[in-house]
Amino acid sequence: MMEPEQELRTILSHYHLGELVDYEKDTRGYVNTSFAIHTLLDGKKSRYFLRRYKPGIQEHELQFEHSLVNHLVARKAPPVARIHRTRQGKTYLRVDSQQPDQPPTFYAIFDFLPGEDRYTWINSKCNEPEVRSSAQVLAQFHQAVSDLKPEGLRVEPNIVEMLPQVEQATQQYLQNPKGTIFDRYLAEHLGMFQASISKTLAVIADPAHQDMLKLVIHCDFHPGNLKFQNGDAIGLFDFDWSKIDFRCFDFALACFYFFSDWDEPQDGCLLLDSIRMFLESYQETLKKGGVIPPLTEAELRILPAMIEASCLYIINWTVVDYYSKDVDAQEYFIYLKHCFELLKWLNDSANQMALSELVLTAGQCG
């Protein structure tokens, strides 16, 4: 791999965006490698966001993501960053490896969204205006994609198809442990993990639920993928996890990211008052009119199970990332433990009743 500055200059030579002046690497990402770049063209300085996609990503997955972004840009709500085209008119740049056994590398350049990066994906402490505004953005997103027929294909299966695969993969990973606290904790809680998958699948895979709304979901809607200004969410980004799945799974995954407490001794507890605000704001946004309805009673009733499915989804990401990369075992143990603490909270009957009652009352208000 060439030095970053040389790499960025080479990539920019395929665009009409000027010469590289400066750059900063984005240190917050776990999957792709990204840079804020500053360019000079005809005496004018501009700032863009350049992404080098993760190794092994398939071209049809990029086509899926970029057709989604272009659709959202055309709709103008929610606010997203435009993709810049190469000199050849493509939304991404493909660089083939000189090694025949290595996959190509893909790049894309986006506008740099205004606003403040206030949070990451963990332990966000959004205030009430930010919670309500974020819910409005999620509702706008679902509204905007309701008629989208994306190009390409996102290879990740939907959550109902994915959970059985997650269980099998986790058992295989544990056959080759790294000998750390992460391995020991995962092995000790494997039975709980398997029981949670079985219980959750029994609910969300029920044929009676298969007619719930499916559309392109963001699948990574968290405070770290939003830009904020004066309490408002003014930009949404990172669509490379997007796929077609249940709308209520996207909402549930957002609840996991926004409202599961990370602080001891409350680690894993859901912040119910904040979920109420988020749900009310989402429902109110969609009740104002449009082509899709607010969350239905069926979606509201299944929401607790979808939040558990979301937790299992994040456990899978944590496990795959831990075993496939050279990562900090203690850091990933914190992620893993947080998810299992949430599973414990969800499996407490009093908590389950409180969550179910909350979503039904808040979701149907007005």
Structure description:
The protein is α+β, with helices and mostly antiparallel strands. It folds into 2 domains: 13-111, Phosphorylase Kinase, domain 1; 128-363, Aminoglycoside 3'-phosphotransferase, Chain: A, domain 2 (Alpha-Beta Complex). It has helices at 4-12, 59-75, 128-145, 159-174, 181-188, 190-204, 247-259, 272-287, 297-324, 329-346, 349-363, and strands spanning 19-26, 33-41, 44-52, 83-84, 93-95, 105-111, 214-217, 226-229, 232-236, 243-246. Strands 1, 2, 3, 4, 5 and 6 form a 6-stranded antiparallel β-sheet that branches. Strands 7-10 form a two-stranded antiparallel ribbon. It has a two-stranded antiparallel ribbon with strand order 8-9. The protein starts with a helix and ends with a helix. The mean pLDDT is 95.
Helix content: 40-55%
Number of helix segments?
Answer: 11
CATH top level class name of the largest domain: Alpha Beta
Question: Quaternary state, please?
Answer: single chain
What share of residues are in beta strands? Answer: 15-25%
Q: Report the radius of gyration as a whole number of Å.
A: 21 Å
Structural class, please?
alpha+beta
The CATH architecture name of the largest domain reads Alpha-Beta Complex
The string of secondary-structure elements, in order, is HEEEHEEEHHHHEEEEHHHHH
Ends distance? 57 Å
Overall 3D shape: globular
Instruction: Outline the biggest β-sheet.
Output: 6 strands, antiparallel
CATH homologous superfamily identity of the largest domain: Aminoglycoside phosphotransferase (APH), C-terminal lobe
